[in-house]
Amino acid sequence: MVNPFHLAFPVNDLAAARTFYGTVLGCTEGRSTEAWIDFDLYGHQIVTHLIPDACRGRGEGGAGAVDGHNVPIPHFGVVLDMEDWKALAERVRSHGIPFGMEPQIRFEGLPGEQATMFFCDPAGNALEFKAFANMQQLFAKQ
After folding, report:
1. 60 - beta bridge partners?
2. Is 82 exposed, middle or buried (0-12, 13-18, 19+ CB in 10 A)?
3. Do 10 and 45 belong together in one domain?
4. In the chain, where do the E strands start and end?
5. Is 1 inside a domain boundary?
6. Which of 4, 48, 78, 142 gives 44 a disulfide partner, CB atoms 3.0 to 4.6 angstroms apart?
7. Percent of the chain having pLDDT more than 70?
8. Is residue 109 within 8 Å of 96, Cβ to Cβ?
9. Are residues 44 and 18 in the same domain?
């Protein structure tokens, strides 16, 4: 088994975070208080902490150029298998969440070819979810 990662990050509304991570993304909720909520994000522990002044609005973070696209920095997410990635893309779309980068294939025909999508949570935290047809390409060099 791969060791799960732990990530804690700020949100400005715990009810909105609960709806987004629990309902939209389908994460199981773990422990919680009036100040934070644990979620299981594909076997990894993420923790939303209520810090109203620490959140930025959508698009206010930096961006890095990757494969001809500006990607939000910072961002986090999970590398999924292709079936789970497609199901998540449809789930996000069905909830009306706008994509910062529509689901697409990047680096097509190159080492590291991947499916990717970006979107933000209600607090403006950017998320990226990827999938590889061949998981051996995850760390492939150009």
Report:
1. none
2. middle
3. yes
4. 6-11, 28-32, 36-41, 44-50, 62-66, 69-73, 75-76, 79-80, 99-106, 114-120, 126-131
5. no
6. 4
7. 93
8. no
9. yes
Distance CA 84, CA 63 (A): 27
User: Can you give the residue range of the structural domain that contains 10?
Assistant: 6-52
Report yes or no: 24 and 34 within 8 Å, Cβ to Cβ.
Answer: no
Residue 59, token pair as written in the block:
């698009």
Query: pLDDT by residue (tens digit) across 11-64?
Result: 999 999 999 999 999 999 999 999 999 999 999 999 999 998 876 655 556 777
Among all chains, which residue has been given the structure tokens 């620490």? 54
Q: In 3D, which of 103, 111, 96, 48 has the Cα closest to residue 80?
A: 103
> 88 and 26, same structural domain?
no
Whether the pTM exceeds 0.70: the reply is: yes
Supply the pLDDT for residue 92.
Answer: 98
- Shared domain for 124 and 74, answered yes or no, is yes
DSSP 107: S
The CB density around residue 123, as the number of other CB atoms within 10 Å, is 23
Find the CATH number of the domain harbouring 95. 3.10.180.10
pLDDT digits (tens, 9 = 90+) for 51-62: 988 766 555 567
Q: How confident is the model at residue 10 (pLDDT cuts 50, 70, 90)?
A: very high
